[in-house]
Amino acid sequence: MLMELERECLQIYQRKVDEAANSKAKLHQSVASIEAEVASLMAALGVLNINSPIKLDKGSKSLKEKLAAVTPLVEELRIQKEERMKQFSDIKAQIEKISGEISGYSDHLNKAMNISLTLEEQDLTLRNLNEYQTHLRTLQKEKSDRLNKVLGYVNEVHALCGVLGVDFSQTVSAVHPSLHRTDQEQSTNISDSTLEGLEHMIQKLKTERKSRFQKLKDVVASLFELWNLMDTPQEDRTKFGKVTYVVRSSEANITEPGILSTETIEQVSTEVDSLSKLKASRMKELVMKRRSELEDLCRLTHIQPDTSTSAEKSTALIDSGLVDPSELLANIEMQINKIKDEAQSRKDIMDRIDRWLSACEEENWLEEYNLDENRYSAGRGGHVNLKRAERARVTINKIPGMVDTLIKKTLVWEEDMQKSFLYDGVRLVNILEDYKLTRKQQEEEKKRYRDQKKRQDLLLTQRESIYGSKPSPRRSSSFRKPNGFNISNGNGSVPPTPRRGSVGTTTPDVLLTPRSYSGHHRQNGYFKEVRRLSTTPLNYVAMQKEDTVSTTYTSIYSSEPDSPLQG
Questions:
Q1: Does pTM surpass 0.70?
Q2: How far apart (Å, rounded) are the C-alpha atoms in residues 76 and 57?
Q3: Are the beta carbons of 47 and 77 closer than 8 angstroms?
């Protein structure tokens, strides 16, 4: 009995000992686990300045006391970890969202991002948190830049669609539906594919704008040409006022909404077609009109028009049906352009011709002025004419130099153009050479006239020295008294007094200029006039005067010294 009780007591004791040992082991395990958790939390949070109370009081406290002392620290570290993980979670969520918007929500990229976030959950340090925040700010800036770029592209697409008359919503929706939002919940897509799509769309719209701009410009140019050709009234042109400025504008400056729409181009093209049909019905009238313009242009530029398209021939060709009026009109247009180009190359010579003709007109005026016996009177405006006369004399002295320079310029032009310079159908060099020759002949005639007058004055002086200058009553009734002298030619007649011109003046009937002959002579008539002038005495009065002087000389020296002049 005692042995059984002793055995039972030993069993109970052994069980108690085992339970105590197990409890102690569990406490050791709990303490070790808590220490490991503390170490793990501290490492994950990057906390380095916290010492475990278990290690500080390792020998002085029981396991339960150590466990009770470290439990608050564990709870505090767990709370810090939860807060830190929440911060990481928020930042990572924003990074995932922005990265998805930038990448276009690529599944492959999202999976890689989730894996990287799971692996990095063990690193909850502030350094890692700051890196995530820096990465988030970088992504936010990139998102802002992309959003501004997308909005700029969208605005440019809107402007181009307005000019081209294209539906804006359909255009941007073809790139991405979010670009034309109808609700505020859907964000604007800023992925690379959207940016590339917008760039491609803008380039496509610009190409279309360039094509339509050139097409409209050509159509408007044709419209202007037809308007001018058909003399379209201004009220009919007004309805196309918004497209007329296209001809004078550059492509980049076209901002009028719908100005390059297909409807606008079709409207202008329809007007051009209708005017072209009307032009075909009035072709004969248009040919005559353009031929008249060609002749007016030739008259202004002193160029002979092409006789193949003269009014008579054109009318005959159109009436006979041998030539298409459009081809005839195109030929006249080509001639007009050719005359304009030639007139541009002749401009310098024509300006010099105008200055030469102006100098010749001054020369003619000066001659008429010198014939005026009252030119030195103190009347009103006399001083103005005197000043003009002085300027005219200076200009007249430059005429030979003008003519020589004009000949040189004309010859250079003929060598460059490989053809003759014609002025109203006559070669200008021939006109100038004839002018120089005629002017030289006139100068010689003037010199001969002056020499004759000197001899006349000498004879008169000798007569006066022999017979005296006072006329007798018998002779005063038989002779006129020009210039203070009594002159007889032996038959009782008195020659007319020649008109005396100043040195450097000209006679209008002698010197011919292109302006003077073009109004009275044409082609061969001009050269006939020059030949006539070259064979006719320049001053018939002077020649008659010379005969009179010879008669007077004979009368004087054939009589006796004291006898009177023969009546």
A1: no
A2: 20
A3: yes
